[in-house]
Automatic annotation (TrEMBL):
Enzyme Commission number(s) of this protein: 3.4.24.-
GO molecular function: metalloendopeptidase activity; zinc ion binding
Cofactor(s) for this UniProt protein: Zn(2+)
Active site as annotated: 151
Protein name from the UniProt record: Metalloendopeptidase
Signal peptide: 1-19
Amino acid sequence: MKFLLFQVTLFCSLVALNANPIEVEQEYGDKFQGDIVLTPEQEVETTHVGRVGRTGTINTNVRWPKINGRVTVPYVIDSVYSSSEKNLIYNAMNEISSKTCVSFVPRSSQNDYIRFFSGDGCWSYIGRIGGKQDLSLKRSGCMVHGIAMHEIIHALGYGHMHQHYQRDSKVRINYGNIQSGLEVWFQTLDPASWNNYGTSYDVSSVMHYGPYSFSRNGQMTIQAYSSADQRVMGQRSYLSSGDVARIKNMYAC
Ligand SMILES: [Zn+2]
């Protein structure tokens, strides 16, 4: 299916290992680029054509529809979650919807919708893939406000900030500290397919990897050149102003 070419699955395994989500975030999983799973079509695209611009994909086919000026994303939440866990998901959706033109609505009969469920880690597709699309927030490890927003933003169509092709003036990738074989998850994306929606590189983005993501030795895998950037890198507490601007620009609202 041609329209599936750019539909990318993200496996966003962002586990808060202690109470400070800014300092500690570990992404894990065996998926493409750390938390990305490709559909068969996308694997072909990636393997034979080159890397697809996932971070801020330019493919408008994966956008959610705009109805009466509001982007409308239907969802269902699996019954396995407790009421407090459901509230965490609601709060994540509310922070996004209150600051953008994106509305999340309980699914009635819509064909395309997100299903929040407790799967293996924290992960999401990028953009609307058509039909039911799973978004995993594992009950143990993923129930963090910013992790839920991070996965939802993937489902809206945005990838990972640290793969910005201009990131090297802001952060240094310590390849020697990355778990063997996972270096690809730290590669920048092709500028031809990159779109950061009119915003600059944003270390404080909720879509940025943390400094210790996929470390093999407890040392930093991503290091900011400024201490202020270092402090906010990997935060999973709030939408940065850039996060808000990117969503609004992506959906022209
Ligand atoms: Zn992610």
